[in-house]
ABC-2 type transport system ATP-binding protein
Amino acid sequence: MTPRPRSGARAALGALLALLFTGTLVGALPATAAAAEDVGTEEARVPSGSGADAVELDTTLYLPASATADEPAPAVVLAHGFGGSKQSVADDARDLAGRGFVVLTYSARGFGSSTGQIGLDDPRYEVADLSTLLDLLADRDDVLLDGDGDPRVGVAGASYGGALSLLAAAYDDRVDAIAPQITWNSLTAALFPSQTGTADDATPAATPQTADTGVYKRLWAGLFFGVGSVPTGGLLDALGGGGAAEAEDGEDGESSGGAAPASGNAAPTLPFDPASVDPAAVEQALTCGRFRADICAAYQSAAASGTLTPEVAAVLDRSSPAAVLDRITAPTLLVQGTEDSLFGLGQADANARGIAANGTDVKVVWYAGGHDSQASERETAELRDLVAGWFDWHLRDEDDPARGEDPGTGFEYPAPTGLGSGLGSVQGGTQSVLADAYPGLDGDRPVQRESVALDGDVQPVVTPAGGTPAAITTVPGLGALASALGGTTVEIPGQFAAFSSEPLDAAVEVVGAPTVSLAVASPSGSATLFAKLYDVGPDGARTLPGGLVAPLSLTGLSADPAAPTEVTVTLPAIVHRFEAGHTMRVVVSSTDQSFALPAEATVYSVALAGSGNGGTALAVPTVEGQTQSAGGTSRWWWLLGAVAVLGLLGWLAAVLWGRRRRRVTSAVEPDGEDVPLRFEGITKAYKDGFVAVEDLSFEVRRGQVLGLLGPNGAGKTTSLRMLMGLIKPNSGRITVFGHEVGPGAPVLSRLGSFVEGTGLQPHLSGRDNLRLYWAATGRPAEDAHMEEAIEVAGLGAALDRPVRRYSQGMRQRVAIAQAMLGLPDLLVLDEPTNGLDPPQIHAMREVLRSYAATGRTVIVSSHLLSEIEQTCSHVVVMARGQKIAQGTVDEIVGAGGAVLVGLADDGETERAAAVLSGLPGVTVEHTDEGLVADLGAQTSRAAALEALVAAGVAVDQFTPRRRLEDAFLALVGES
């Protein structure tokens, strides 16, 4: 019934499919005790439709023990989200059944085990299917009836299921109450939005629902089509062999209508008759998967052109409740999320206005979540109770003791905070705000708007060819994750105009969609733009509430920047508190990676309406209400108390730990400046028992270039991560310049690192990338030593060209220079020569040597042993998490192995070979280079040379022939 909270890190695709498309609360909280003990189930396949559109719907009926022929109960139909099935709402069904409702769940046509093709909530198919299910409920004697063939029934669902509940109430007057959640009003306006023109500003989130044009929501549409385009039973139907139902029967061992199984040496029997194959049907099944052909064609048209054609609009409008809201008389609970870039608050606003215009009871609830962010456990429990309470009041008889209190027709929204959305934040906190009505629905109490003055000059806005590079605001379905990664968006320099307020004298709580007037000129007379409202703190930190943007598709514009066209823009509807001292900044950009963009490059002119130098105002909606504490039961007070106690204990622990850390930090090792890095008995083991590093000890002296070597899985990366304070060892101690290392240790400011990729912005120059990186550290610009790092890295004049034009070697040099900013005393590099050609590797080798020559220390982890041999002065060799050798490169290479023997007289070659062959374990080989003796493990080089001299052989050359690679392989093999 409500968006499901999920715990733990999951694969991104899994999160999209389970959280975004199903839009349901699947097992978020345990069902009630009654649900667990007193609810039975009945499985059935229900036929629906006729002719070519006939399907079988896979259903499950949840029956509470209290529902009998003598005491019939009201019913609830639960519809699932897009990409889901009846299993997606199973736990919600058990919860409602535990409260005494007869609950029917089913997989919509084209989903789960139901047959047929996806009609996208088409009234002819999906809505008709739901009416068929109401007929089924009307035939049961344990379901409360309002009349012959008329069950007392409510319908609930999220996203795809939410739109179905609205359409069902419009087309079937037997529906007595609905609770649609995070769903659409106009699918056309949702997928082709353009928030321009005048909207009814009497309600908080009123947003223009453009019908004839808009900016194509490319990524969201692609995700929807992708999840429904996998061929299933439709392909078998096209081949003439039956659909999903027959396939399932066959799996159960029953006849599926095909030929008998092959036996003996008979040829295997195909599940279809090749002669009956329809090539056109097969092509449609492979191309469109489970979608009906008209929907598939509409998507392909939109994806190819990025424009809204009449044919595409006809398909989307058919599946939109907008046109039939005047038919809805069932009391409606509208639940919408504030973190939703797919179906924003404006969609629920339009539904509320359309339904309330009939005199129908409407209650509006906004919560902190949506398609971009999972609801919290608290939100989930409260929304589940809210939906159940709505059905209790509107479906039960007046004398039913379980009816509960009247939920009313008020408005509820999360208490605004200045926090960004995302993991670890508490958008909406633990409180909600209640108002006695959704402002503007009755026409007598319109929403209040506060005026905030903006300022800014006329600004050119560049649209790049092909729309690349594009600004990044939110990732469809993962907006919370993107926001959690610093809450940062990416605006491309030159591609946006910005208009800001003065720092606010007092906090402003925005509840709804702000509006602003712009003046725009375009050489072509049209423009595609994206407007957004940032919260900018006194330190310059930016927050984009909800990661939401307002697409603008503008036509009929003036081509003269001196006489621009004024347009009214509705910004995204948000719930956000702009604190005192913060500024509101309206940004208008030409690109956004989530939308289809113009292919032609051009330059727009954007200004505030009213004057060429600014002077217009931002109108922000505010809603007064009563702040309520979280939770509807006393358990939340206990939880709140527990949290407070835990918080106090945590604070005390932090204080004590901080004191301990300060004592440890003050105990600097006396040789710290001479030993930049020391590992002492470091061990790192994981919960599954895997030991990544075991009893690792070594030290690095100032001016050394240390190579960290080892095969995959040796523990090199884990060691570096512990060195940088990213993970903690289980035992042992790491010190940097005599100070113990831990997360956030101040001494880490003396360390520079380059690990796993350059992370450079391709549209910026190398110099701008370096400046941007240093600015992000918050340290003074003069401390960067920018020119010194550039000189050491040997970047040259190319530094001022865009990074996208750089070779791989140049990118690596910029990344090394980035790590060198501030001239850290300890430089840690992971695979710095990865992907470079030999000349580039040689140049990088010189960079590292020259840096160490300044008295600093470099640590290099690499798999290129020959480069370590030529670059590093010292080596630590690891295998299986342990150190197996340490020393200078010469010491590692020179321990045993082969030597090249050069003789003063070539005539002595045979005699020298005889002398050496007589030594224990020595073998001799004649090569083009000369005589090579493999000394093995029993004879040292000194003993071999002494034997030659004693035999009177004149030795002119006696040098180790083994390379670091040979030593490495020998050491690893021995380990």
User: Anything to note?
Assistant: The mean pLDDT is 81.
